[in-house]
Amino acid sequence: MPGAGTFREDFAASVVVALVAVPLCVGVAVASGVQAELGIVTGVVGGLVTGWFRGSSLQVSGPAAGLTVLVYEALQTHGAAALGVLVLAAGALQLGMGVLRLGRWFRAISVAVVHGMLAGIGLVLISGQLYALGDADAPGQTLAKLGGVHGLAARADWAAVLLGVGTIAVMVVWRRVPARLRLLPGALVGVAAAATVAGLLRLPVEKVRVTGVLEAVSPPTWGEFGVLASFGAAGTVIALALIASAETLFSAAAVDRMHDGPRTEYDRELIAQGVGNGVCGLLGALPMTAVIVRSAANVEAGARTRAARVMHGAWLLLFAVAFPRVLEAVPLAALAGVLLYAGWKLLPVRAVAALWRTHRGEAVVLVTTACAIVVTNLFEGVLIGLGLAIAKAAWETSHVHIEEVWEGEELCVRVLGNASFLRLPKLLDALDALPHDRPVRLDLSGLRHLDHACLTALEGWERTRTPLPGREGVI
């Protein structure tokens, strides 16, 4: 924790991070389909609970846009009462993974799958928030939302649309303002401007509904734990734990490159996230993950120790207790603008272009993962992406090469590399093309790997050839 020499820097950074976090916490909660206060509750837990752990000193946790899609789907499937149980179980799973030292394994996940996951989340987020931007009701499925966009203009409240677009414009322009003048984060400025305009002009647009923090908190009861017996709920828990953990640890790697302080201890960070999500589950709040936007703001604001993120949680708690009614002035369209901007930033347009020029297979995995998430759901889409990445890796590593060497009247055929069923058609085609009027000796001693399918096929092929008298094929 801080000493006298770092308190000033940590205190100032905590204020900046809290200001960044407020609109994001509220926006993620509204987009997830829960009360706005629950987003702030998760932010408070991310600071006051997770912030104390030593896993990553400058990384900041809270509700993230990356989990919005999964939480919304879970609420539609299992109901709002099950949210606390699902988040609590996901936290317990994360805690277990941290204790078993599985944090490092997350670095083995294909980067293309991770980028594809984020791109799919971005597309789903954008498709839903376009309707929120116009204060219009949205269809339930992502494909239906995308298909209905063409008719959205006729149903949209254009006053709300202008407020949301104005929020995005403020955020874009704010990034170009000189750093010395950017005392407040762009998202907060944009939302505040939209709220001011809506209030002064008395625009009849939808606004955030506030019930109060204590009223919003809803701890799960024993009866609600029965939902975990269903296969779908178990899949949701696994998806929450894995996606939150992957996003946290990839964020940690990015944050570590931004400062010269202590590096992240991945297993401890998983334990911290597990404890934090366990507390969020007990409070019936949203799940948390490390958020790169807040973490980057923390580093850029000059934070030195984890005290900055702890104090940011205290600021959020003070805001939720002292000024809850301020949220009622915020138009939903302004929050939609914030999330549309966040969703756009999740789309790795440059990464896809770069991969297509250098590693087209990786680009295909990325795009396929994103499309699968849009067509199915987040969990199934990621599984499809992982399966494709594994198949691609297996295909690329199963190289097999044939060398032909004449030894007198005998043709020696040496098979080199990795012979798996994936390359069996190519291998048999090459062997069948060999001369049929000469004896052939098959030498497999140069193979590093030979699976059963290839061994069986090669033995069958060799029996059809005519070796020199008294000589056998080398298997």
Task: Characterize the structure shown.
It contains 20 helices and six strands. It is an alpha/beta fold and 475 residues long. Strands 3, 4, 5 and 6 form a four-stranded mixed sheet that branches. The chain has a two-stranded antiparallel ribbon with strand order 1-2. α1 crosses α9 and α5 runs antiparallel to α18. The longest helix is centred in the first third of the chain and has 26 residues. Keywords: Membrane, Transmembrane, Transmembrane helix. Pfam families: Sulfate_transp.
State the helix count: 20
* DSSP, total strands: 6
Name the helix and strand elements from N-terminus to C-terminus, one letter apiece. Answer: HHEHHHHHHHHHHEHHHHHHEEHEEH
Distance between the termini: 65 Å
Give the proportion of residues in helices: 55-70%
**Beta-strand fraction estimate:** 5-15%
Protein name: SulP family inorganic anion transporter
Pfam families: Sulfate_transp
Subcellular location: Membrane
Transmembrane segments: 12-31, 75-96, 108-132, 152-174, 186-205, 225-250, 314-344, 364-391
